[in-house]
Amino acid sequence: MLSYILRRLAYGVLVLIGVNLLTFALFFAVNTPDDMARLAIGGQRVSQVAIEKWKAEHDYDKPLLFNAQAHGPARWTDTIFYTRSAPLLRLDFGMSDDGKDIGHQIRVRMGPSLALALPTFVLGLYVCVCFALLLVYFRATPLDFSGVVVCVVLLSISSLFYIIAGQWLFAKILRWVPYSGFLDGSDGLRFLALPVLVGIGSRLGGESRFYRSLFLEEMGKDYVRTARAKGLAERTVLLRHVLRNAMLPILTGTVSAIPLLFMGSLISESFFGIPGLGSYTIDAINAQDFSIVRAMVFLGSLLYIVGLILADISYTLADPRVRFD
Predict the structure, then answer these.
(1) Contact 269, 279 (CB under 8 A)
(2) 234 CB-side CA count, 13 A
(3) Residues paired with residue 95 on neighbouring β-strands, in sequence order
(4) What are the helix and strand counts (H, E) for the chain?
(5) Which residues on adjacent β-strands are paired with residue 101?
(6) In the 8-state DSSP scheme, what is residue 10?
(7) What is the pLDDT of residues 266-281, one digit of tens each?
(8) Which of 10, 152, 220, 323, CA to CA, is 20 to 30 A from 76?
């Protein structure tokens, strides 16, 4: 198992290097350093002197990947890639185009993102699994049919509708919660209640329908018939046998998504005014701050690789028969 994890980590480093190179190439294929300077300063009628000054202040006055005028290792190190993108490989996120420390912003904004994402993830998983088990328990009944119809309807609605409808009903009509905002500590619960509820509702249809299919597939296997022949109650069969044997595909989607919780929700954080990493990324895209966007893309790739490794490890915990050589 240890050798497998080390191999996956080595592959992950290669993937991160590839993501870094690809992201760098895509960004500078869209905008040149001169275009970035004009966007940062503001307006197209900017003097070349001001552009060159901005580029020198932000280390964009160098060649992109290879400096033919330099000598020795400086040909590769005295470049925009080495000064702006290569430090990401050692988790040095550098400075944004407006001069702020990106690493500090990530540490500050990680808390609000987790405050929203963790309850949504945990409660959403619990609600979806319980709802799917309820439908399987009453399978081939009107309740099961009605539940499947509800899942299809919820699955067909955009997540943006849940946000707008939730703000209209609970914030404007009932006035139970505020429209948007965020506070630290226990005072922030009333600001997080609606985003968490919306997050659970938006994933209920798709995930419950998927889990129901997994559980129904397990219900037709021999070990379930054996358990029933031994006189076990249907509830015991579902919780002790079916749920446990269906954990592998569930873990594939859930455990690998845990590290991505740190990235926050782009849509929810923007609509509800939560100062997390999701809204930070949206603001960077709107401002065309490519340093922040590159850092967030790299961080997302890193966390996704970590999530896949955690998912593989969780397989061995859920099913001791699974082994990785």
Answers:
(1) yes
(2) 9
(3) 101
(4) 16, 0
(5) 95
(6) H
(7) 788 888 888 988 888 8
(8) 10
Q: DSSP label at 256?
A: G
- Four-point Cα dihedral 185, 285, 24, 99, nearest 10: -70
Alpha carbons 175 and 140: distance in angstroms, whole number:
40
3-state SS, one letter per residue, for 70-103: CCCCHHHHCCHHHHHHHHHHHCCCCECCCCCEHH
Q: Residue ranges per domain, the chain?
A: 2-90, 103-318
What is the pTM for the complete model shown? 0.82
Choose the weakest-confidence range: 15-19, 226-230, 304-308, 317-321: 317-321
What are the Cα distances from residue 238, in Å, to 243, 274, 320? Answer: 6, 39, 20
Q: Give 103-318's CATH code, choosing from 1.10.3720.10, 1.10.150.120, 2.60.20.10, 2.60.40.1230.
A: 1.10.3720.10
Residue of 169, 192, 189 lying closest to 180 (CA atoms): 192
Give me the amino acid identity at 48: Q
| 55, two tokens | 């580029």
Separation of alpha carbons 314 and 308, rounded Å? 10
Which residue is listed with tokens 């709107």?
286
* Tokens matching residue 79: 């470049």
Please state, in angstroms and rounded to a whole number, the distance separating the CA atoms of residues 227 and 213.
Answer: 20
**For the CA atoms of the chain, what is the radius of gyration?**
25
Tokens, residue 263: 């990235």
Which of 154-177 are b and which e, b meaning 16 or more Cβ less than 10 Å from the residue's Cβ? Answer: bbeeeeeebbeebbeebbeeeeeb
Q: What angle do CA 180, 186, 191 make, to 5 degrees?
A: 10
Residues with Cβ within 8 Å of 188's Cβ and at least 6 positions away in sequence, in order, are 115, 182
Query: For residue 117, what are its two tokens?
Result: 């994402």
Q: What is the overall mean pLDDT for the chain?
A: 84
